[in-house]
Amino acid sequence: KMAAAAAGAAAAAGLWSEVNRCGQNGDFARALKSVNKILQINKDDVTALQCKVVCLIQNGNFKEALAVINTHTKVLTSDVIAFEKAYCEYRLNRIESALKTIQSASQQTDKLKELYGQVLYRLERYDDCLAAYRDLIRNSQDEYEEERKTNLSAVVAAQSTWEKVVPEDLGLREATYELCYNSACALIGQGKLNEAMKKLQKAEELCRQSLSEDSDVTEEDIEAELAIIHGQMAYIMQLQGRTEDALQLYNQIIKLKPTDVGLLAVIANNIITINKDQNVFDSKKKVKLTNAEGVEHKLSKKQLQAIEFNKALLAMYTNQADQCRKLSASLQSQSPEHLLPVLIQAAQLCREKQHAKAVGLLQDFADQHPANAAEIKLTMAQLKIAQGSVTKACMILRSIEELQHKPGMVSALVTMYSHEEDIDSAIEVFTQAIQWYQQYQASQTRGANPKSPVHLSLIREAANFKLKHGRKKEAISDLEELWKQNPKDVHTLAQLISAYSLVDPEKAKVLSKHLPSSDTMSLKVDVDALENSHGATYVRKKAGKLTGDNQQKEQGQGEVKKKKKKKKGKLPKNYDPKVTPDPERWLPMRERSYYRGRKKGKKKDQVGKGTQGSTTTGSELDASRTASSPPTSPRPGSGAAVSATSNVIPPRHQKPAGAPATKKKQQQKKKKGAKGGW
């Protein structure tokens, strides 16, 4: 037995040497075989089990590694194997499980802290992630400092993009293209698109410099690495309205066939948003890229949500009503408070001409989610206007308490009520808005009553509206308030006097004393310059005649108009001055007193009595007559310039000569045949 044990120990020692050598060479597949042989000798060897898990992880077999850990829980305790277990769960996209494993570890090693930061980023807990990376950078000094700074900048960029947090200046030196790229993403989140584009151009330059130093890297490899930078450039172009440039760059990236499924999904989604309801066949092709395996693990929740929204809209644009309803209902169940799913459902119902049902759906959502009621009610009002129910639309708009006093809302309501000739309701809208501002300012100024520019503007608009619609009595109080605020306003005073002239003439006379005198209102105007100015309707003649030289000069300048000479009328060739002209020559022949009508029987022999195909007489074939007569159809190209408003019949529809008579004969024949048939 002792000999067997010694032989086993010697064999194990040889196998451990093999494992060590293979591990140093990076040959983990061969090392795994040796570890398995060691475990055959001693199945509960903790070190051998740890080595097996590491070899499986290095070979990418995360499921098998996790199975080994879970099978040997008694031997591989959390203290021994916590990092490897959490890493396997992280790589298998079991992020919540990885977080629990890390938090349950008795000792937080540097490796676990690094992994903890990655897990928090994937869970989109950016504040905690930022704190974790700051702690790591502060307490670590090794060759991975640049990677940690890159991750820190990525967290700040994510906060700026998804949480609209103003990013703080980390003071990082942007020496790598990754840091430049993350900085550009943060700027995009703030809406600083031009600055972001410059950062991306710098990132592209740094990337080319970094990769070109490696002789093994090809131009295709460089373009593949630049794909994500170019994708962000195209997104900026799209936000700036340069859709054609953005679309061209997006398609160039797709042609490269990058391996990053997340990048492809985002680009495909952006192309779909550019296409909208046009080029739907291209959108259908692109939507397949958003369904690739693993996309859900590469993108943030908001990105995935946006893609699903666009899928629902694409289904609506392609008339896939059931698919649209299914997708929007699924989105609503995932995010009950989100506006877009219910708006998509309402839009689909409107396409199906079910406007009442769409309004009911929106009303239910507004009742359930009062926080989002304003935007929903605006949509409801739009639907009512589309149906022609303007008064109902006004009622919906007036029910939005947080917007009813806004100048834009007041203007819209007054315009709509005026369209419906409901002047009383329009004035009521003005009154309520003015009262709201009066109460608000009184609460803000502790009893003082200064008028804000918006308040005064509403009062003026109300007064002008009342004056326009003949409500001068009602306009007086508004005008007095305006004049009280600015006694030097002559225009308001004039309006007030005009209004009082119909109600209280004596009051109007008293107020008219406040008008400035005519002397103070006189303006220094050069009458001669005004009369001679360009565009004046009357120009006074200058005294004296122009001399010959001056006249030629004035004619050269084109300032003096020439007198048009009256042309003598042309007389007819057979005009005889001795003969008195016919006094009825301007009347049509039929209206003249000596008109006796046409003589019957003349040229009777020339009337064709044969069949339709019979030949005509020789006189009708005279080329001189046909040349001078108007053509029955235009020559090639003669009808090309006919305008859309012209009454000229186009060449295709013009009837040939003699067609009406032929048609009439055919109709008569048909009638005869019909009678005979009966």
Alpha-beta classification: mainly alpha
The CATH topology of the domain at 1-107 corresponds to: Serine Threonine Protein Phosphatase 5, Tetratricopeptide repeat
What characterizes the major β-sheet? none
Low-confidence stretches: 1-5, 605-678
The radius of gyration is 45 Å
Task: Give the helix tally.
Answer: 33
Q: What's the overall average pLDDT, rounded?
A: 78
Distance between termini?
A: 126 Å
**What is the molecular shape?**
elongated
Give the C-level CATH assignment of the domain at 1-107: Mainly Alpha
Biased composition (Low complexity): 608-641
Keywords: Acetylation, Coiled coil, Cytoplasm, Endoplasmic reticulum, Isopeptide bond, Phosphoprotein, Repeat, Ribonucleoprotein, Signal recognition particle, TPR repeat, Ubl conjugation
Main location: cytoplasm
Pfam families: SRP72 (PF08492), SRP_TPR_like (PF17004), TPR_8 (PF13181)
Produce the secondary structure layout:
Layout lengths: L1 H24 L2 H14 L4 H13 L3 H10 L6 H14 L3 H10 L5 H13 L3 H14 L5 H18 L14 H14 L2 H20 L6 H21 L3 H13 L5 H15 L4 H8 L7 H4 L2 H17 L3 H14 L4 H13 L3 H14 L4 H15 L2 H9 L8 H13 L3 H22 L8 H16 L3 H14 L4 H14 L1 H8 L5 H4 L5 H5 L16 H10 L65 H6 L30 H19 L1
Helix pairs in contact: 1-2, 2-3, 3-4, 3-5, 4-5, 5-6, 5-7, 6-7, 7-8, 8-9, 9-10, 10-11, 11-12, 12-13, 12-14, 13-14, 14-15, 14-17, 17-18, 17-19, 18-19, 19-20, 20-21, 21-22, 22-23, 23-24, 24-25, 25-26, 26-27, 27-28
InterPro entries: Signal_recog_part_SRP72_RNA-bd (IPR013699), SRP72 (IPR026270), SRP72_TPR-like (IPR031545), TPR-like_helical_dom_sf (IPR011990), TPR_rpt (IPR019734)
Keywords: Acetylation, Coiled coil, Cytoplasm, Endoplasmic reticulum, Isopeptide bond, Phosphoprotein, Repeat, Ribonucleoprotein, Signal recognition particle, TPR repeat, Ubl conjugation
Family: Belongs to the SRP72 family.
